[in-house]
Design a protein that fits this description.
Radius of gyration: 24 Å
Strand content: 15-25%
Largest sheet: 4 strands, mixed
Structural class: alpha/beta
Number of strands: 7
Number of helices: 3
Shape: elongated
Order of helices and strands: HEEHEHEEEE
Helix content: 25-40%
Distance between the termini: 91 Å
C-alpha cells in the first residue's frame, strides 16, 4: 500500500509540473500575440487638378523607408506579392474585392501594415495609461508611372488597431495630391 501511495504522489507532482509548464507556454504565446500591432487605413489620391488618380501603388510603413534604389523597388515588389496584387514576375493580378495598396477608379486606396511593439510596451500590456503608444508616426509611399516616387509622413496617434482578420474598420488618411515634379 505504501508503494502505491508514493506512485500517486509522484503522478500528482508530474501533473502539477505539467500544468505549470502549460500555463507558462500559454502566457508566453499571449504576450507574443500582444506584441503584434496591425493598422488599416483608407485614403484618397488626386492629381494637381483635383482629379482622382487610378493605379497608384501605395505602401504604409511603421519604420522609415529606404529613400531610393533597389531597396525601394524590392519593397514595392514584396508588398505587391504580400497583398496578392502582383505575381513574382511583377505582373498585376486581379484581386477579389478591393486591392490592398493600389488606388481604384475613384482614387481611393486601402493600406495595411503590421508591426511589433517594443518589449517595454508589451510588458506594460496597456496597463500604463501614462505610457507612450508603440508607434506615433507612419510613412506612406506612392508610386505611379509618370510621377516621381513620393513619401508622406502621417501621425498615427489615436489610430485604432485592426483585429487579426483585419475586419472592416479603417482609419482615415488625409487627402494626398501627387505632383508631376
Amino acid at each position: 500500500m505504501k508503494r502505491k501511495s508514493g506512485l500517486v504522489h509522484r503522478l500528482i507532482g508530474y501533473l502539477l509540473a505539467f500544468i505549470i509548464a502549460l500555463g507558462a507556454v500559454y502566457g508566453l504565446l499571449w504576450i507574443n500575440e500582444s506584441m503584434d500591432v496591425r493598422f488599416q487605413a483608407v485614403g484618397l489620391l488626386v492629381d494637381e487638378a483635383g482629379n482622382p488618380l487610378k493605379g497608384v501603388e501605395v505602401v504604409l510603413l511603421l519604420a522609415s523607408p529606404p529613400s531610393v534604389g533597389p531597396q525601394l523597388d524590392a519593397l514595392f515588389t514584396n508588398e505587391g506579392m504580400k497583398h496578392n496584387r502582383s505575381g513574382p514576375d511583377g505582373s498585376l493580378m486581379r484581386a477579389v474585392g478591393p486591392t490592398i495598396g493600389l488606388s481604384g477608379g475613384e482614387g481611393t486606396y486601402i493600406v495595411r501594415t503590421t508591426g511589433r511593439a517594443g518589449l517595454s510596451s508589451t510588458i506594460r500590456l496597456g496597463l500604463d495609461s501614462g505610457g507612450r503608444p508603440p508607434f506615433e508616426m507612419a510613412w506612406l509611399l506612392f508610386r505611379k508611372e509618370g510621377y516621381p516616387d513620393q513619401t508622406k509622413t502621417v501621425s498615427i496617434l489615436g489610430w485604432r488597431t485592426a483585429p487579426g482578420d483585419w475586419g472592416t474598420f479603417a482609419n482615415r488618411l488625409p487627402r494626398v495630391v501627387l505632383r508631376k515634379e
